[in-house]
């Protein structure tokens, strides 16, 4: 099993979720986060005063999938979240050693 973590622009969340559903992804976790990458934030104007916003709003999606689904999930997120502009985000893939569904006691693949 692998955990796919994607940091994307917030307005792309619904599109990404819709792209993952046909692949068999049954659940995912979404967290509102803030951060910056190469763009180093952006300049905003509020009441005529210019100021620097260092941390931009992003959405972190975490989904655990079977090894055979990883490539399809990563591709679906990458294609759907891409705008072609700076700040589109990143995708990370990590090994998951064990999973347990608390309610039923199911483990590993049957737990996801």
UniProtKB/TrEMBL annotation:
Gene Ontology cellular-component terms listed: cytosol
InterPro entries registered for this protein in UniProt: N-reg_PII, N-reg_PII-like_a/b, N-reg_PII/ATP_PRibTrfase_C, N-reg_PII_CS, N-reg_PII_urydylation_site
Pfam families: P-II
Residues recorded as bearing O-UMP-tyrosine in the entry: 51
Keywords per UniProt: Nitrogen fixation, Nucleotide-binding, Phosphoprotein, Transcription, Transcription regulation
Keyword set includes Transcription regulation: yes
Oligomer and partners: Homotrimer.
Family according to the record: Belongs to the P(II) protein family.
Protein name per UniProt: Nitrogen regulatory protein P-II
Species the sequence originates in: Plastoroseomonas arctica
Classification lineage: Bacteria, Pseudomonadati, Pseudomonadota, Alphaproteobacteria, Acetobacterales
């Amino acid at each position: 099993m692998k955990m796919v973590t994607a940091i994307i622009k917030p307005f792309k969340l619904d599109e990404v979720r819709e792209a993952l559903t046909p692949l068999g992804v049954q659940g995912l976790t979404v967290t509102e986060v803030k951060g910056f990458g190469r763009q180093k934030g952006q300049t905003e104007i509020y009441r005529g005063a210019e100021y620097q916003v260092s941390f931009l709003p992003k959405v972190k999606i975490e989904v655990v999938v079977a090894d055979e689904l990883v490539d399809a999930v990563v591709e679906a997120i990458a294609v759907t979240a891409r705008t072609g502009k700076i700040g589109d985000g990143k995708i990370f893939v990590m090994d998951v050693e064990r999973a347990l569904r608390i309610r039923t006691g199911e483990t590993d693949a049957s737990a996801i």
